[in-house]
Amino acid sequence: MKRIILVAVIVAAQLAGVHSSCRSPLTPEEGFSCTNEVANAIRSRPAGDWWTLSTDEPQFIPGIDWVKKYFQCCRHCVWSLEYPTTAPIAAMVSDDLNCVEFRASFLEYDVNEDQRLSEEELDRYLQSGPNAYLVGNDLLDKNSVFVQCDLNSDGSISLEEYFVLRHFWATMHLTRTGPLTPPRDGKPMKDGPFGGFFLDFGQLQVWFDLVQTYLLEQYWDNFWDTSLIRVPTEDELTDTVRRMDLDGSTRVSLEEHYFRVFA
Known about the structure:
It is globular, with a radius of gyration of 19 Å. It has 263 residues and is mainly alpha-helical. Helices cover 48% and strands 3% of the residues.
């Protein structure tokens, strides 16, 4: 019991020291300025308890709402399952959903240390892990990925744009698969819409199943209350995917993900 109290005090102290720009960011840099210490501190508690880390929050608010209200700069560090709508389940599980690792990998790929990734430098990421399988099997077009990730069209990928990429493509990293719906014209996936760089219903179904498994393991390991962790109903799953698919194309693009989560 004493250890739990001590951890809570340490975490609260870490969060209290965060600059106010994290709460109301004005620039892209501030919008993704979540420190490793704060990300790890939030990660150490169940989402239902995040609200207790704010000294000026008198009552429970859902984990995702708490991040949006107090730590907007950490939005790329948490994933909302979007259901139930009153208190969406939040996830920060596995190495694939760890924004601390995102920053470290960016620095690894930034060979010339100019704090931006060229197309050649981003290629190092696209030739690693499950990306390499997708690219090697004509399921993902590297140039299309670069163009879509370059949100401000300046010819390079900033740290902030890389965070958006990793938050969006975390679904692929966790499921180890790209879109499951092949192009109707029979062309390779990389030659189809978005160069294969999108999320579809089948992939998202696998995502929800795996996240539930990881969440339950995390909650069991830490003796947290698992009663709020559950699979979505069929209607919840359909409604969630519909909200993610802003243009109704049945494909969720990085741009749609950016405007829904970060804009």
